[in-house]
Amino acid sequence: MNLIQAWNNGPGPNSIREYLVLILKGLCMGVADIIPGVSGGTMAFITGIYDQLIDSIRSFNGSFIKKLIKFDLTGAIAIPHLKFIIPLLFGIVLAMVSMARIIHELLLTHPVQVWSLFFGLIASSILVVGRRVGNFSLKNIFFGVLGAIFSFILVGLIPVSTPDSLWFVFMCASISICAMILPGISGAFILLLLGKYEYITGALRNPANPENTAILIAFVCGCAFGISVFSRALHYFLEKHHGVTVSILTGFMAGAMRKIWPWKEVLDSIVVRGKTHVLSEANILPPAYDGDFAMAVGFMVVGFVTVIFLEWVSSAQKG
Question: Distances from the Cα of 202 to the Cαs of 59, 177, 213, 269, 272, in angstroms?
Fold first, then answer.
C-alpha cells in the first residue's frame, strides 16, 4: 500500500465538491471559535458532521502511535481519518487566520447585529439538535434542564486567578480543548475563566523563549490528552446513552444563550494584548424598538432560517 492508497483508505470526501463543502464547514467552525461564547462544536452539529468529527479524533489511537514509533509512515497514515480531518482543519485554520480581525472589528462596531445573527443560529440549532434526542422522556428532559442550568451558570462566571505551574497549564488545556468540541461552550472562554488566556497568548508571542516553549509543550500535550480521552468518552455516551447525551448537549446550547443575548451592559472588563475581554456583563432589554431593533431581529431570522436550510440540505443528501 502506497501513501495515496493509505490516504484514500479512510472515510472522507471523494470529490472536489465534497472537499470544498467540508472546507466550508470547517470555515463555519473556525468563525464560531473566534466568537467568544460560541463553540465550533455547535457548528459541527448544525452542519451534520459532529459524529464524524468525534470518530475522526478517536481514530488517532494507540495503533497509530505504534506505527509512528516504528517509522511505518504508510501504515500510520492508513489508520486515522486524515481525508476528513485535514480539509476540516484547513477550513478552521483558514477562518481563524483570515476572519479573526474582521470578526473582532464587527464585534466592536456592530455587536448587536453579530450577536443577533448567532442568537438566531443557536436558537434554531437547539431545535434541530433537540429533534435528535429521540424519546422525550422525563429522564431526557431532566438531563436537558440540568445541562442548561450548568451552562447558564458557567457562562456567567468571572475569571479567576490560578497558578502558573506546568501541571495546571496541562489541566487547563485538557479542559478547554474539550469545551471546543462541546456545542454551546467556548473553549477560549473556559481558558479565560481558568485565568490562563493571557498566560498562553503571552507564550505564543515569543515561543522561542525556553520558558514559553515549556508552557506551550505542556499546553499542546494537555490538548492532545484531553481531546483524545474526551472524544472516546463522548462517543461511548452517544452510542450507549444517546438520548441522555444529546439532551445534555442540547441543554448546554440552551444555557449558553445567556452569553449570546445581543443586548448587554458591560460591568467589568480587562485588556489582554491590546484586546478588551469582558469579565462581567448583564443582559438588558433593547434600549429602543426602532430601526436598529428591527435590523437585529432580521439578523436573528437570517440565522434561524440558515440552520433550517442547512438541516434540510443535509437531510436531502442523506435521503
Answer: 32, 18, 11, 18, 9
CA distance 317 to 300: 26
Q: How many CB atoms lie within 10 A of CB 259?
A: 26
Q: Which of 1-5, 143-147, 278-282, 287-291 has the lowest mean pLDDT?
A: 1-5
Q: What is the CA radius of gyration of the chain?
A: 20
Count of CB atoms within 10 A of residue 265's CB?
Answer: 10
The residues, ordered by sequence, that sit 6+ positions from 260 with a Cβ below 8 Å of its Cβ are 37, 38, 115, 118, 119, 122
d(CA 42, CA 14): 25
Q: Which three cell numbers stand for residue 165?
A: 505551574
> Reduced to 3 DSSP states, what percent helix, strand and coil does the chain have, rounded to the nearest 5?
70, 5, 20
Q: What is the pTM of this model?
A: 0.71
Q: Which secondary-structure segment (H or E) carries 282? A: strand 275-283
Q: How far apart are CA 10 and CA 56, in angstroms?
A: 10
Report the chain's mean pLDDT, rounded to a whole number. 81
